Amino acid sequence: MNIFHIKKILKSRWRRWRRAIWTVGACTLVAIMAWLGLLLSDQMERLMEKEPLAVETFGKLQAVIPVAAEEWLNDLEKTNQTRIVHLNKIYTCGTESEVLGIMRPDEIAKLMKSHPEWEGRLGSGGDVWIDERINGLSDICRTRGYIGIDSKGNLTLFDGPPKKEKVIRTFFQLDVEMMESALPADVLKQLREGIRVQDVEEYNSVLSTFSDFAIEQSEKVMQQNDH
C-alpha cells in the first residue's frame, strides 16, 4: 500500500472521536478568544496612551539585537588571529560539513556579510562554525535514506535499510500497539523494511503520517477521552 494513502485509513478509523474532540475544543477556543479579546482591548488602550515610551523601547531593542548577533565577530576581530572555518549545511533531511579553509577575521566578516542568512559562532576550540539551512535532502538522504522503526519502537532515519542499523536520526517513539490495530499489515511491513525517501515532499509526508502514532500524541488523546 502506498504511504500517501495511509491518511485516508486513519481518518476513517478515528473520525468519531476526533469529531467530539474538535467540537469541545472549538467551544473552548471561542470562549478563550472572547475572554482574551476583552483583556487585549484594555491593554491596547493603555499602550496607546504610552505610545512614546513604547516606540522608544522598540528603538532600543532594534539597536541591541544586531550587536548581539555580531558579538562573536567583534570578539574575533579583537584577536586578529586566523581561524579554521567550517561550514555545516543543515538540510531538511541530513547534514553535510566541509572546511572552507583558514581565514583572517576580516575575511570571515566579509563572508558572513555576503551571506546574511548564515549563522556563525566561535567554537570552544577556536574554530569558526557556520550553519547554512537548506530546504532539501542531503546526498545521503537522497541516495540511501530510509525511514523505518528501530528495535526500541522509534521512528528513525536510516542510512540504508533498517536491517543495517545505520542510524542517521531518531524522530520520536511510536505507539506500536495502536499502529498494529489501525494500519494494514502491509503498511507495517513496509515500515519495518524501510520507506525510501527521495524528495522533501515524501520525507515530510511520511513524518506527518506516523506522527499520529507518536507516544506523546497518543497520551494526549487518551487524556482528552478521559475527560
TrEMBL record:
The keyword Lyase does not apply. Keywords: Membrane, Transmembrane, Transmembrane helix. Residues 137-211 form the Bypass of forespore C C-terminal domain. InterPro entries: BofC_C (IPR015050), BofC_C_sf (IPR038117). It comes from the Bacteria. The chain crosses the membrane at residues 20-40. This is BofC C-terminal domain-containing protein. It comes from Paenibacillus puldeungensis.
